[in-house]
Design goal:
CATH class of the largest domain: Mainly Alpha
CATH superfamily of the largest domain: Arf GTPase activating protein
Organism: Mustela putorius furo
CATH architecture of the largest domain: Orthogonal Bundle
Order of helices and strands: HHHHHHH
Keywords: Metal-binding, Zinc, Zinc-finger
Protein name: ArfGAP with RhoGAP domain, ankyrin repeat and PH domain 2
Strand content: under 5%
CATH topology of the largest domain: Annexin V, domain 1
Structural class: mainly alpha
Number of strands: 0
Distance between the termini: 24 Å
Shape: globular
Helix content: 40-55%
Largest sheet: none
Domain Arf-GAP: 1-88
Radius of gyration: 16 Å
GO molecular function, one term: phosphatidylinositol-3,4,5-trisphosphate binding
Length: 153
């Protein structure tokens, strides 16, 4: 957790059950259950080779390098959406946030969609506001916690 925290809140969203007790809303708990470590790692480590894996006994410096490569540089992430332009990613994000599939939103956002992109709707001008209009509380929670994130392109 310390290595994740050292990346800063733009690059890593580690949460502690003890240190961050005040942030655990019902929606955030449900979001963590829906996404979970396995699904998040299916994306962030989708192209991780066996010889690149981090081991339990790896030294601190190797952990820091690995976590930086994984989350800040996006070195091991799945690249299924790499052929989409930024504009296409943003359009797909706006369409995704009004539906319950947070994993689709995660993949779009982590692939380069802009969490604060213009939606074309003068009243609901951000993906967060579109999700709110559609009553998608988990989408809103996910977008809120990633509004200042800076994902690798």
């Amino acid at each position: 957790a310390g290595q994740h925290r050292s990346l800063g809140p733009k690059d890593s969203k580690v949460r502690s059950l003890k240190m961050d007790a005040s942030i655990w809303s019902n929606e955030l708990i449900e979001l963590f259950i829906v996404i979970g470590n396995k699904r998040a790692n299916d994306f962030w480590a989708g192209n991780l080779q066996k010889d690149e894996e981090l081991h339990m006994d790896s030294p601190v410096e190797k952990r820091k390098t690995f976590i930086t490569q994984k989350y800040k540089e996006g070195r091991f992430r799945k690249t299924l959406l790499a052929s989409l332009t930024k504009e296409e990613l943003n359009k797909a994000l706006c369409a995704a946030v009004v539906k319950p599939d947070v994993l689709e939103t995660m993949a779009l956002l982590f692939s380069g969609a802009d969490v604060m992109c213009a939606t074309g709707d003068p009243v609901h001008s951000t993906p967060y506001l579109l999700a709110k209009k559609a009553g998608q509380s988990l989408q809103m929670e996910f977008l809120y916690h990633n509004k200042f994130s800076d994902f690798p392109q």
